[in-house]
C-alpha cells in the first residue's frame, strides 16, 4: 500500500468462501440491504425509503444532526447573553470545534469495526447526560462564560462522533446505483433537522428561556437513543474489518491519493464557510440587523430551505453526468460569495434572500461532494475516510474561530464575513483550477 500512488487499489478482505475478489457486485450489495437482484434503469427514490435500515438511518440522522447543529446555535446564543465582549464568540467557536477536530477520525475508525447500533446508542446516551448537566447549570443561574466553554467542549464530543458514523452507514444501507439519491436524502434530512432544531430552539428560548434550548437537545438525544436501539441496522459496515484499522492508514491513503485529496480540501473550505456562518450569523443578526433569537434562527432556516430544494431535485429528478464539473461550478464562487453577500447586507429581507440562494448552491455542492468522496473510497476504509470528512468539515470550526477572533476584534462582524468569503473563493479556486476534480 503506497501513499504516492495516484489511485488506490485496496486489497480486499477474504469473504466467507475465501475469495479475495476486488469487486463486490451489485447483486450481493443489494441483497445485503434488502433489494432484489433486478436491475432498474432509473430507480425511484421511493425504493430507498421502503428499505427499513435506510429509513431508520434517516430518522437517526435527523436527530443526531439536530443535536449537533442546534447545540452550536444554543451555545453561541448563550455566550452572547453572558457577555458583551464580541471575541468571546470566536473563543467559544475554538472550544466547541475541538471535539470534531480531534475525535472525528477516531470515531470513523471505531465505525469501521464496531456494531453501528451499539456505537450509536452509547454516543446518544453520553449526549443526553451532558446536555442535561448543561441545562441544569443554565436553569439554576450558575452558568458562567468559563463554564460555558467547558460544557461546550464536553457536551459536543458525542454528537461530533455521531456524524461520521451516520455518513459511513449510507453506502451500507443503500444500493450502489442509488448512492447519490441516498446522499441527497441524507442531506435533506439534515436540513429538516436544521429547520426543526435551530428554528424550534430559537422559538423555545424566546418563549421559555435559554435553558429550554438545552432541554430540547436532551429530548433529541433520548429520541435518538430510542431510534438507534430499535433500528434494523447491519452488524457491520460493508467491507468492515474484524479489528480496528489504523487511523493513520486512512489519513495516508486519503491525503496521498487523488481525487480524495482534492475532495477533502474542498470539504475543508466548506467547513470554513459553515463555521463562519454558524459563529457570526447570530451575532450579525443581533448586532448589525438588530434582531432577536427567533429572527436569527430564521436566517438559518432560509439557508436550509434552499438546501432542501436542491437536495430534493438531486434525489428525484437530476443526476449530473459530469458531477466533478458541477462541483467545481457550485463551489468556485458561490461557496464564498454567499458569505460576502450576507456580510455586505444591511437589510434583514436581503440577508434572508442571500441566505436562501446560498443554500440552493450549497445543497448541490454538499451532495455531489460527498457522493464523489464515497464513490472513490475503498469500502474497508469508509468509516475512517468519513471520519476525515467530518474532521475536515467540522474540525475547521476551531481554526476558523481563531481567525475570526482576530478579524472581529480588529474590524467588525460584517467585515470578517466578507474577508472569509473572499478567502473561501480563493482556496476553492486553487483546487478546481486543476483538472482532477473537474474531470470526475
From TrEMBL:
How is this protein annotated for GO cellular component? plasma membrane
Which InterPro entries is this protein grouped with? MFS, MFS_trans_sf
Any one Gene Ontology MF annotation carried by this entry is:
transmembrane transporter activity
Alphabetically ordered keywords of this record? Cell membrane, Membrane, Transmembrane, Transmembrane helix
Q: Which parts of the sequence are annotated with region: Disordered?
A: 1-25
Q: Can you say where in the cell this protein is located?
A: Cell membrane
Q: Give the domain of life.
A: Bacteria
Q: What CDD domains does the annotation carry?
A: MFS_MefA_like
Segments of skewed composition (Basic and acidic residues): 1-14
Q: Indicate whether Signal appears among the record's keywords.
A: no
Q: How does it sit in the membrane?
A: Multi-pass membrane protein
Instruction: Note the Pfam families from the entry.
Output: MFS_1
Primary location class: membrane
Can you say what this protein is called? Answer: Putative MFS family arabinose efflux permease
Q: Which parts of the chain span the membrane according to its record?
A: 56-79, 85-107, 119-138, 144-170, 182-202, 208-228, 262-281, 293-314, 326-344, 350-373, 385-407, 413-433
- Has keyword Membrane? yes
Amino acid at each position: 500500500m503506497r501513499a504516492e500512488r495516484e489511485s488506490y487499489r485496496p486489497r480486499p478482505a477474504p469473504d466467507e468462501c475465501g475469495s479475495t475478489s476486488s469487486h463486490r457486485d451489485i447483486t450481493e450489495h443489494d441483497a445485503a440491504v434488502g433489494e432484489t437482484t433486478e436491475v432498474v434503469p432509473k430507480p425511484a427514490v421511493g425504493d430507498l425509503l421502503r428499505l427499513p435500515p435506510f429509513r431508520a438511518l434517516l430518522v437517526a440522522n435527523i436527530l443526531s444532526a439536530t443535536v449537533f447543529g442546534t447545540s452550536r446555535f444554543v451555545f453561541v446564543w448563550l455566550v452572547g447573553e453572558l457577555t458583551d465582549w464580541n471575541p468571546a464568540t470566536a473563543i467559544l467557536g475554538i472550544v466547541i470545534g475541538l471535539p470534531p477536530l480531534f475525535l472525528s477520525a477516531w470515531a470513523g475508525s471505531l465505525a469501521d469495526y464496531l456494531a453501528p447500533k451499539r456505537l450509536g446508542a452509547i454516543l446518544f446516551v453520553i449526549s443526553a447526560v451532558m446536555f442535561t448537566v448543561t441545562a441544569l447549570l443554565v436553569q439554576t443561574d450558575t452558568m458562567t462564560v468559563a463554564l460555558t466553554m467547558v460544557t461546550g467542549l464536553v457536551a459536543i464530543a458525542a454528537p461530533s462522533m455521531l456524524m461520521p458514523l451516520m455518513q459511513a452507514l449510507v453506502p451500507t444501507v443503500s444500493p450502489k446505483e442509488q448512492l447519490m439519491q441516498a446522499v441527497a436524502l441524507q442531506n435533506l434530512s439534515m436540513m429538516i433537522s436544521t429547520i426543526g432544531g435551530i428554528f424550534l430552539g430559537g422559538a423555545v428560548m424566546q418563549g421559555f428561556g435559554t435553558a429550554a434550548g438545552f432541554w430540547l437537545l436532551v429530548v433529541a438525544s433520548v429520541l435518538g437513543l430510542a431510534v438507534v436501539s430499535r433500528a434494523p441496522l447491519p452488524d457491520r459496515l460493508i467491507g468492515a474489518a474484524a479489528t480496528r484499522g489504523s487511523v493513520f492508514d486512512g489519513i495516508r491513503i486519503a491525503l496521498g491519493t487523488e481525487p480524495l485529496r482534492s475532495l477533502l480540501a474542498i470539504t475543508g473550505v466548506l467547513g470554513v464557510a459553515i463555521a463562519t456562518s454558524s459563529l457570526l450569523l447570530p451575532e450579525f443578526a443581533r448586532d448589525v440587523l438588530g434582531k432577536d433569537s427567533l429572527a436569527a434562527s430564521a436566517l438559518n432556516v432560509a439557508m436550509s430551505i434552499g438546501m432542501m430544494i436542491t437536495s430534493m431535485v438531486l434525489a428525484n429528478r437530476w443526476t449530473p453526468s459530469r458531477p466533478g464539473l458541477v462541483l467545481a461550478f457550485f463551489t468556485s464562487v458561490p461557496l464564498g460569495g454567499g458569505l460576502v453577500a450576507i456580510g455586505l447586507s444591511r437589510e434583514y429581507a436581503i440577508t434572508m434572500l442571500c441566505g436562501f440562494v446560498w443554500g440552493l448552491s450549497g445543497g448541490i455542492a454538499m451532495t455531489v461532494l460527498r457522493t464523489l468522496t464515497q464513490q472513490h473510497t475503498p469500502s474497508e476504509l469508509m468509516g475512517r475516510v468519513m471520519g476525515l470528512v467530518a474532521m475536515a468539515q467540522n474540525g475547521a470550526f476551531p481554526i476558523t474561530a481563531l481567525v475570526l477572533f482576530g478579524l472581529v476584534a480588529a474590524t467588525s462582524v460584517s467585515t470578517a464575513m466578507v474577508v472569509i468569503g473572499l478567502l473561501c473563493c480563493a482556496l476553492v479556486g486553487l483546487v478546481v483550477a486543476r483538472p482532477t476534480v473537474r474531470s470526475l
